[in-house]
Design goal:
Chitinase A, domain 3, alpha+beta, globular, about 30% strand, about 30% helix, six-stranded antiparallel sheet
């Protein structure tokens, strides 16, 4: 009987873990639908991040460990705002992977979007007002690189 319960637990764990992997495909489909519905010219990176440059800046590009100052707004794919910041300064080592990678495509004074799958955002865990597995959209103006 113990073996049966052990097998049941292992089966349930494997079933749950395979569902978590489905976020990659679901997130990509959701981000592609957002890109299409908003008529964006997005570039996809090897990690699954999409980025859009709407106004090219001329300053330096940050590295993944640079400190930056940005104005930003964070949205879900239904266009609901969940966060925003003005003149927010932080080191890219202290932010989600999607920002750490995505901002390296922006020069100072560049404006654009980062479309971030959950694996490069907050993953499968819910964080504050962000449900687990959520792809995120950020409108960003990179003001300064230090």
């Amino acid at each position: 009987m113990k073996a049966f319960y052990l097998l049941l637990v292992v089966f349930l764990c494997l079933s749950c873990s395979s569902d978590l992997g489905d976020f990659d495909n679901e997130n990509d489909q959701e981000l592609l639908a957002y890109i299409e519905s908003h008529n964006l010219n997005a570039q996809k990176t090897a990690s699954g991040l999409y980025y859009v440059i709407t106004k090219e800046g001329t300053g330096v590009k940050p590295k993944s460990n640079s400190t930056v100052t940005v104005n930003y707004k964070g949205y879900f794919t239904n266009d609901r705002l969940f966060d925003e910041g003005k003149n927010a300064t932080f080191n890219l080592q202290n932010v989600i992977a999607g920002w750490r990678e995505g901002l390296t495509y922006f020069n100072e004074d560049t404006e654009g979007y980062l479309l971030i799958p959950s694996k490069l955002g907050y993953g499968n865990a819910s964080t504050n007002s962000i449900p687990g597995g959520s792809p995120l959209i950020f409108s960003i103006h990179l003001l300064k690189v230090y």
